Amino acid sequence: MKVLIDTNIMLDGLLEREPFNEDARALFQAIDLGQIQGYVTATTLTDIFYIVRKQTQSLERARLAVIETLEVMEVCLVDHLRLERAIASNLRDFEDALQLACAIADRLDAIVTRDSQGFAGATLPILFVSELRDRLSPALD
């Protein structure tokens, strides 16, 4: 199963944000084991760098977070057409709209997030980590 991992979950794992870190770690473990294939958008990498640097006050930690992401995730390209599709969508949040446009363009199976409201009306399955676990069970247990 190919899934786009929302930026919030990536940050939960990279910054060990509680109470969400456990779900993020389970998801990363499933990716490491080859049970699912994880994707992020190119813009997620810039968000990760900016937020990790801001929260940790460490340029090196921000770079490491991007390197760690690149080691385990596939990256969805962000191009003119995908940006146009995102801005034309009915989603209120542009970042979520862009992630959805990329996931559809790359023919991914779902988006995994902890903020499903941001994807209201999406034509692709929007899952919480627990829902993904249920679909893959017992693979994530």
Main sheet properties: 5 strands, parallel
Helix amount, in percent?
55-70%
Q: How many E-type strands?
A: 5
What is the C-alpha radius of gyration, as a whole number of Å? 14 Å
Helix count, DSSP H or I runs of 4 or more residues: 7
Quick structural overview:
The chain is of the alpha/beta class. The chain has helices at 7-14, 21-32, 42-56, 59-72, 80-88, 94-105, 129-136; strands spanning 2-5, 37-41, 74-76, 110-112, 126-127.
Q: What does this protein structure show overall?
A:
With about 140 residues, the chain is α/β, with parallel strands linked by helices. The chain is built from 7 helices and 5 strands, in the order βααβααβααββα. It has a 5-stranded parallel beta sheet with strand order 3-2-1-4-5, sandwiched between helices. α1 packs across α2, α1 packs parallel to α3 and α5 packs across α6. The longest helix has 15 residues. The radius of gyration is 14 Å and the shape is globular. The mean pLDDT is about 95.
Give structural attributes.
alpha/beta, 55% helix, five-stranded parallel β-sheet, 141 residues
Annotate the secondary structure layout:
Blueprint: E1 2-5, H1 7-14, H2 21-32, E2 37-41, H3 42-56, H4 59-72, E3 74-76, H5 80-88, H6 94-105, E4 110-112, E5 126-127, H7 129-136
Parallel strand pairs: 1-2, 1-4, 2-3, 4-5
Helix pairs in contact: 1-2, 1-3, 3-4, 5-6
